[in-house]
Each structure stands twice: as C-alpha cells, then as structure tokens.
Design a protein that fits this description.
Blueprint: H1 3-12, E1 36-37, E2 52-55, E3 76-80, E4 85-88, E5 93-94, H2 96-118, H3 131-147, E6 150-164, E7 168-184, E8 187-190, E9 199-209, E10 212-225
Parallel strand pairs: 4-6
Antiparallel strand pairs: 1-5, 2-3, 3-4, 6-7, 7-8, 7-9, 9-10
C-alpha cells in the first residue's frame, strides 16, 4: 500500500477490502414507514462531546435544555470543535431506528476524529463500534504513532439514511475533508489525497446489538464525489 492510499485510509476511515463499496442497501433492508422525526439522543450511546448547534446556515450557539439537538427539528448543524467535526443532519428522519442509528453514527465520527487528533483511541468509541472495526481503527492509530503523524483541521459530514429496518440501518454520507490537515516533522499540509478528492461519498452500516446500535462497517469511495 503506497503512502497516499494509507493516509487516505487513516484519515478518512477507508476500509480497503475486496468488497466493492457503493450505495446499495443490505439485502432485505426496507425503509421504515414511520412518521419522520428529528433524531433523539440515543440512550444506548455514550454522552457526546461538547457541541454547538445552529439552523442550516445560521451562526452556531451553545444548545440549551429547551433547544437541544435531541429536540430541535431539522435541518440543523452540529458542531464539535474539540474533534474538528461538523455534522449537517438531514431535514427529516423516518423512524426511531434510523434516528437512533444516525445519532450513534455522529458520535462515532466525533470520537474517531478526536482520536486522530490525539493519536489515542477514545474510550467512548468502544461502545459505538463493533470489535472488528475497533481493531482496524487501532491499526490506523498505530501507524500514526510509528510515523509521528497527527491530524488537525476540520471535516464536515452530511449523512442521510439509505435504508432502515428494526435491527439494521444503512447510512450514506458526503464527507468534505478539504480542510483536513496532516501534521508531522515536516510541518502542516493537506492530508494526502484530499486535494485530488476533497469531497467524497461514503457508506456505513449499523446493527442493533445487545449493547445498542454499533457501526459494523464503513467504506469511503476513492472515486465517487459529492
């Protein structure tokens, strides 16, 4: 694996495997017919890091008990400065399963990009992802440690539900990594591959497990743009 491919894998959480990525729903997955709702904070996921929220295009403000991400109707923007992550939530989310999975997916990305900055796996991410995925994330962080690499800057994620059933949710998303930077002995520079492909399509699958919703798979295309 060349340096560019590995850097994209570490920074953008690409799982390079023989399976083709894409937007296809898992077999047997059907969209829930429930009335669209805004995403509630999942009781099964760890508490998210501090964030500010805003309506689409508005200025960020600290949420209050009366105007929290769990209660505000979408669309709205969730900003996690500590992790350098902005999430643009969909305007409508059909069904509780999809809403809960989106909340876990958001927290998972926040903890992962925080981990890339700290070169240390967040303890909070352990309840948000299945063990095989955790093992892959550990491998990316070990590469960073061995090569004196940290990440900075910001990413913006715009997720949407591709399909949902009671126990499986497929999420597609647009990842804007144009402001993601790599930091090493040579200083700061754009993360490898980002200049050629600043905005790219990704897919994720979440499964309901005995401990709650968990990210079980995630793929980010090296060709599809958004």
């Amino acid at each position: 694996m060349d340096a560019r491919m590995w850097a994209v894998s570490a920074a953008l959480v690409v799982v390079l495997s023989a399976c083709a990525s894409g937007g296809e729903e898992p077999q047997g997955l059907e969209t829930e017919p429930d009335t669209p709702t805004s995403a509630p904070a999942s009781s099964e996921s760890p508490s998210p890091r501090s964030e500010s929220t805003s309506d689409e295009g508005g200025a960020s403000t600290e949420p209050t008990a009366e105007d929290s991400p769990a209660q505000s109707p979408g669309p709205h923007v969730r900003v996690f400065d500590e992790a350098g992550v902005t999430v643009i939530m969909p305007e409508e989310i059909a069904g509780n399963a999809a809403a809960e999975a989106l909340d876990v997916f958001t927290n998972y990305n926040v903890e992962w990009y925080w981990s890339l900055r700290e070169v240390e796996l967040s303890e909070r991410i352990r309840g948000l992802a299945a063990q095989p995925r955790i093992d892959r994330l550990k491998g990316s962080l070990e590469y960073q440690r061995q090569n004196g690499i940290t990440y900075g800057g910001e990413v913006t994620i715009e997720p949407y539900v591709e399909g949902a059933s009671e126990n499986v949710v497929a999420i597609g998303f647009c990842l804007d990594a144009s402001e993601l930077i790599i930091i090493d002995d040579d200083g700061e520079r754009p993360a490898d591959g980002v200049e050629e492909l600043p905005r790219t399509i990704g897919t994720a699958e979440l499964n309901r497990t005995e401990v709650g919703w968990q990210v079980t798979d995630e793929e980010i295309s090296e060709e599809e743009v958004c």
